[in-house]
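During data preparation, a discrete fold description was generated, as reproduced here:
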Amino acid sequence: MFCVGDSVNDLDMLDGRYGFHSGTVATAEEEIKEAIESNRGIIAQHPGGRGPVECLKKLLEAKNIR
């Protein structure tokens, strides 16, 4: 499972408790970026709709999935 969020209301699904991969967009709140970083998730360089796509591409590349 891969989850992407950008606001504190997403924190429960992004904090690593459930063991899945997580990511966030460039414009995410700082608390979200910190949670993603501490769980070795992906922080995109792009905001909005391009950010989740970037995160998913990076995850697939890291897993060698094409």
Observations:
- Residues 50-62 form the longest helix (13 residues).
